Amino acid sequence: MKAINSRNVMAMAIMASLATTSVAEITIEEIVVSARKRAENLQEVPIAVTAFTEAQIESAGIQRPADFISLMPNVTMVDSANVGDTQVSIRGIVSTRDAESTFAYVVDGVLVTNPNGFNEELMDVSQIEVLKGPQGALYGRNAVAGAIIVTTNRPDEEFEGKVKVGAGNNGSKNASLTLSGGLAEGVLGRVSVSQRETDGHYSNALTGASSVDFLEDTTVRGRVIWDVNEELSLDFRGGMSEVSGGAINFNAVFAIPAFAAGFGPTFFKDVNEHEFIFSNNVPGENEQETTEFSIKADWDRDGVDVTAILSYSDLEEYLLSDGTSATFYGYELTDACQADRATLNNAPTAFGGADRSDLFGDFFGPFGVFPGNGGADPDFTGIYGPYTPTACDGYQYQERNQSDTSLEIRLTSDDDADISWIAGVYAAEIEREVVVAYGADTGNGFLRQGYVGPTGPNPTDLMFSDQFDTSVMAIFGQLEFDISDDMEIAVAGRFDREERDVRNQVPNEAGSGLNINSSGSINPAFASNPNGIPKRSATFSQFQPKVTWSWNAAEDLNLYASWGVGFRSGGFNSIGSEALLDLWYGDTCPSFVPSCGDPGVAVDANLSVQDEYKKEVSTSFEFGSKMEFFDNRLRVNAAVFQTEVEDNQFFEFFAGPFGLMRVVTTIDELEIQGFEMDFNAVVTENLSVFGGAGFLDSEIIQNDHRPLSEGNEAPQSPDRTYNLGAQFEMAVSSGVEMTARLDWQYVGEMAFHTLQGEATPTIWQVFNGPGLTQDMSKAKRDAYDTLNARISFDAENWGVTIWGRNVTDEKYLEEIIPAPEFGGSFIHPGAKDSYGIDFNYRF
Fold first, then answer.
1. Distance between CA atoms of 503 and 525, rounded to whole angstroms?
2. pLDDT tens figures, 158-176
């Protein structure tokens, strides 16, 4: 109650100041957005939009998407496994690993299809707009939850440039250069180069290197605008980036109450209390190379503007890291594992061990690794953890390569037309290759490739490799017309049709024989397809209507309501996923056969994972208001919404004796409802205050894949999010302005899985008998809050900024990946405090 009273007092003080200060020229700046493909005032657009201007981007220190995601209610982001593998939740609808995104990402009018394209350097950006709710009619495929629109600075005729350099803790360094100006008559150009690197927040206890979550990013982007004549303009964009970073930086936490009863509480532990130790002998590495190019033509004809956009992008990416097989003794008998166990174990010296608690934690707390045959205990004892410092856990290798080409042609009526309309067509060809391989760490190094033969340095024992080809065709349009002087109706629609093919690329080979848990072939699908795994095809289509009503109820009050349908195409998991899970987790024996030898008989998890997953369709209703008070010195926007989702695509992670596997499943019916508001207030000539609050109420209505989860909240849908900030500006000397800014963010408790405490069987029943079930009630992320601070000094052509992120060093989890059949979760820590200084010079 005391905290509530404090907030009330602060709010009353702000309101009183707004009401009594009589400086007419102090108002909130008008923001023009392109949310409906036209230039409109933010307060008049009947869509929930959060916009960041160039000045706000600079003052808030927005450099990557996570920086602006934290400044909005009901929007969260997870970024942990590797660079670009982000999950963004907008109003409780979360983008899914290994599936399509849930929002459209548009840069300078070009829809970015590459899944890694979102989490990139935001260089030379003039405005960011975040639209919430279904936006498919205007912003393309997969805009189920919304759209994020980025506009970069347009080149001018006059030559200008900017140089920026900076440094911070954790070995952080950055440098960038932007040049812009006229190239020829009617031709303007702009180029930006950025280089950023950091050692990260965490170090490797085995190697001592600060290389766990490191990042190196070099990006080059260019833009050329050619005004061919008064009617035709061509906009060329191109870019290249090279990224190196850490990958798969997780620790494991058990959630098996029966183990806790016998061995101690660490086997059923709150994930938020975990003390992280990274000690991988295969340090995670992620390498990416991205190339992109687009050309946009704008042709102004009588009564209509014609826009054509052709774009191409290519991503080449691989990941290499430790594996998980040590937990199930997969490579226990290899020479490399035996050698490592002799010196890298946490058994006490009294037991003949090495007492390496620095690598594993306390003995059996919860992991216990014995020295092997050279010590007091035999093989196949102890409890090993995943991602260990020994060769016993093998390795994993992944590739995600994608190239896509798209073409959009759009017709737009003139702004002064009696009825405003937009119509267009869209086509795309997408080729995506996904490789997940798992094999032995023999201590002889690694080949960065999917398949390595039995005589190779890191032979493959399990492999998924698929080529996914997608052909997309869509037509879309929107009509906007007035039904009175102050009321408008907009009717929009989009029809998408996606043809998807997948073909297996795994060679029909046996494993190395080094993994004692291997089922034989490196892909289980060959068991039922000895002559080759057949190609698969499917077509997914959906009409997505949207109707919006808006009313200018008063000079400073606009109301709107909308109803719309969102669509995300179905797709394929890696071929062999269903067969592998049936083998280890399912009782697939005929009813007249008591036991057919499959280990899954002992688990019988009743999963419904298939190699193909369904399309996702959502229906959303929203009512919102946009208000201004005190002569435009206080702006308040708010909305209530309700969304029903059919076949919500959900990522699941499976770890077991086979290694690991990633699949997409579906939640049959999901309901989400909520409220959000944001405000911006100019308190005095020098001080502005801004913030927002979001509330979500979600429920899983039906989930045939995991029926026990029905009634639980939706994954990655925190019940509340808050943000609050303040900015103070003043002149400190002639020609020098100081800007000080604070940004506070609060994210409520979050579940990451559909199972949130319901008991289900684990793979441990294969090895230790029945009754070893999991309980994910302690696998929710606790609520947390962070505080960022910046102070800048700017003159006409130079500036310096001192900044800090998470300045209170709040400890929180970035991500939790529950693996119920494993009997635990894989967790990644959030970023620690960071600080630094940046200098810039403009010319």
1. 12
2. 999 999 999 999 999 999 9
Which residues, listed in sequence order, are joined to residue 570 by a DSSP beta bridge?
none
Segment 422-443 shows an average pLDDT of 95
Token couple for 195: 């280089």
Other beta carbons within 10 Å of 770:
12
Sign of CA dihedral 265, 267, 269, 272: positive
- pTM above threshold 0.85: yes
> Could you give the count of Cα atoms lying within 13 Å of 145 in the half-sphere of its Cβ?
26
Q: Supply 787's token pair.
A: 């505080």
Confidence of residue 642 (pLDDT cuts 50, 70, 90): very high
Burial grade of 791 (CB within 10 A; 0-12, 13-18, 19 or more): middle
Q: What H or E segment, with its residue span, contains residue 335?
A: helix 335-343
Domain coordinates of the chain in residue numbers?
2-332+380-842, 338-379
Using CA atoms, how far apart are residues 6 and 12, in angstroms rounded to an integer? 10
Residue 217 to residue 585: CA distance in whole angstroms: 41
Into which CATH architecture does domain 2-332+380-842 fall? Beta Barrel (2.40)
C-alpha 468/C-alpha 236 separation (Å) is: 29
Cα–Cα distance between 209 and 203 in angstroms, integer? Answer: 6
pLDDT per residue as tens digits for the range 52-85: 999 999 999 999 999 999 999 999 999 888 887 8
What pLDDT shows up at residue 325? 87
Range scoring the smallest mean pLDDT among 22-36, 338-352, 557-571, 792-806? 22-36
Model confidence at 138: pLDDT above 80: yes
Q: What is the spatial distance between Cα 62 and Cα 58, in angstroms, rounded to a whole number?
A: 7
Q: Is the bond preceding residue 366 a cis peptide, omega within 30 degrees?
A: yes
Name which of 713, 716, 819, 830 is nearest 776 in CA terms: 819
Pair of tokens at residue 729: 């500006």
Nearest to 73 by CA among 753, 779, 636, 632: 636
Name, in order, each residue with C-beta under 8 angstroms of 455's C-beta and a sequence gap of 6 or more.
none
Say how far apart CA 487 and CA 489 lie, in whole Å.
Answer: 7
pLDDT at 21 over 70: no
Per-residue H/E/C for 275-332? CCCCCCCCCCEEEEEEEEEEEEEEEEECCEEEEEEEEEEEEEEEEEEECCHHHHCCCC
Residue keyed to tokens 């938020």: 272
Q: What separation in angstroms does the CA of 645 have from each of 87, 542, 544, 566, 570?
A: 18, 14, 14, 9, 14
pLDDT of 591 reads 58
For 757, the token pair is 């405490």
Phi first, then psi, for residue 420 (nearest 5°) are -85, 140
Burial of residue 410 (number of CB atoms within 10 Å: 0-12, 13-18, 19+):
buried
DSSP 107-157: ETTEE--SGGGSSS---SEEEEEEEES--HHHH-TT-SSEEEEEEEPPP-S
At 581 the three-state DSSP class reads helix
Q: Lowest-pLDDT range, 11-15, 519-523, 556-560, 605-609?
A: 11-15
H runs (alpha helix) in 150-303: 257-263
DSSP string, 1-41: -HHHHHHHHHHHHHHHHHHH---TT--PPP-EE-TTSS-EE
Report percent pLDDT > 90 for the chain.
79
Nearest in space to 782 (alpha carbons), one of 807, 747, 740: 747
